[in-house]
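Submission sheet (multi-component)
Chains listed below:
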Amino acid sequence: MSRSELDLVLGEVRDLSERYKAGGPEAFDAFRELTARLLSLSVAAPYATVILSVGPRGRDTQVLSGRRGIGDPLPLNENRGYLRLIMTLALVPVEGRRLLKVMDAGYQYQLDEAGDRWVFRYDYRRVPPDPHPAAHLQIRATPEEGCLPPNRPLARIHFPSGRVSIEAVIRLLADQFGVPCNRGPILWRPVLAESERIFHEIAHLPLSGPER
Amino acid sequence: MDKIPVLNWTRDEILTRMEAGAQFRLHMSAAEFVRSYREGRTEDPGQVADLLALAHLLPDDDPLFVAL
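Outcome: structure written.
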């Protein structure tokens, strides 16, 4: 990889980020293209991509997901499982502009396409109606110690996580779960870092539980 | 990157998917699921994130919500 390629990709990421931050109808596709770019540089299988869905509510609310629609998981490289990505995006009026906001987001690492064999899941809900932390992590595993209340498996424990980005999930899959990447870390690490840095400038950071 | 078309869901498609998903995974109707979620009684919303996302594509005055 040449220095110029890294500069080129960083330039693309900054441009797409500026476009989604600017809001308006074009923000949706900029966000989709940025997410697809990050995944294609890293853990997504070469034929995987993300797509936007709309419905009767209109085009101001769109859902980002795998290529076959809402709930369809993205296959990861070398049959290392799937990432079920579901993000509900909406244009929200802010000081005379219509800015793109993530209303809900979920990232689930799973070993089968149906999602029965899921491993971990990060969820974020901007306005959760339930008492779970608005941003939380769930892990489908068995603890080594008997610490859980009756009839509550570890998978039903919602660990407060703070807001977790798609970039963080990609790093987790690549670095900790060993999912192979399409390009070398010398490219994807700085690209993920730049994209995540820009996201954190505007990301909503929820409290870890309800106020009442 | 190629331009990817947006997927358009009709109300019938959304309701069909929601009804099937709610029945199969939660053993309740789509309307009962929406009510349960809005009342904060869904124990594991992440398990049905796809159904919640589909519900987001319906307008606020959709009969599915109005009936609640």
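Remark: Chain A has four helices and eight strands.
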